Amino acid sequence: MDASRLRELTDWLIDGGRSATSPTRFMAECCERMVAAGLPLWRVGVFVRTLHPEIYGRNFIWKPGAEVEIGTVDYNILESPVFHNSPLIIVFRQGLEVRARVDDPASKRFPIIEDLRAEGVTDYVALPLPFIGGTVNASSWTTKQPGGFTEEQLAALRSLAKPLARVVEILSLNRMAASLLDTYVGNGAGERIMGGQIRRGHTETMNAAIWLSDLRGFTALSDRLPAETVVDILNQYFDCQVAAIKKHGGDVLKYMGDGLLAVFPIDEYVGDEKQVCSNVLEAAHESRTSVADMQYPIGDAVERFRFGVALHVGRILYGNIGGGNRLDFTCIGPAVNLAARLEKIASQTRRTIVASEGFAGICRGGWSDLGEFPVAGFAKAARVYGLADETSAA
Hints:
This protein is α+β, with helices and mostly antiparallel strands. The protein has helices spanning 3-14, 23-36, 81-84, 87-94, 112-119, 151-185, 187-194, 218-224, 227-247, 273-293, 334-348, 357-362; strands at residues 44-49, 55-62, 69-74, 98-101, 123-130, 136-143, 203-215, 251-256, 259-265, 295-298, 301-304, 307-323, 326-332, 353-356, 367-373, 382-387.
């Protein structure tokens, strides 16, 4: 092995692997440097747990001459026989190194070893990557070298695992912060906060299509059903909207009880407001179908649901608002206020989807003029439009 290259690699890791511009590039360059230093690597995996409501962990797999593969596993992995019979579970739960030579009969207790034998692998070692916070993540290293890893090569891998763990922890924490921000404030807001827009008063104006919806009869529903059931219903109800909103370029900013506020940014320089509004309307159509199809069994009955959504377009103030060091990244402005009033009009007229004159004027076709309505807080009445394929029950 090349001792000088190993020292250079250690220094590169201690310095944070700065020449790598992304986690995948870091993984590739790290493994390539190891091979250049004399480590006969075939397949390398790094497995990191995440703090995410749906994803238990992420894995990065490197092989010589191939792109780094990135995968995710959900929480079902915890019940999987494959995971429970894997060497990695020992690393995760006990923080111990696991060695498994393919010619060692004791290695047969791990089903993965037979798969590796078929690839021509001769040796496997799983090493812990302990984080400063106390969690233990894992790495796996395989070789096709006859006889497996030498003791010198194993010692090199163990010594490199320590600085590797520090870099992986930093990358993991950065991704975790971004993931949590996306989860709780939305993608657009999360990017701005990570970019340094964190002080109270840091705001910007933007032109956007606005989506404001709520569940019909929610107050009565909350009164007659257990709180746990109501939460489950709300989660399913929001699922009916969020997937469509994100699919069509929207950013969910806030949940307010049964209410949902989302924005669809409009690029004023590109002039894409017609396309954006068309996307918003398509998302509304999809959400209407999903909510109508939603069923929730309660006892011998099956609960069905209706919702209403108001669509508007205008300028909003978007940024940090709050008191002291407790801030909320949200949007305000007359356009948001009007959308909230329109949503109430949707309820009054028993419509599912209503739009302002501005929105209907951009996204033409398929609208019925419902007339003018007085709007609390606004000097002028607002002309409201409903979809032509809906009939008012008012």
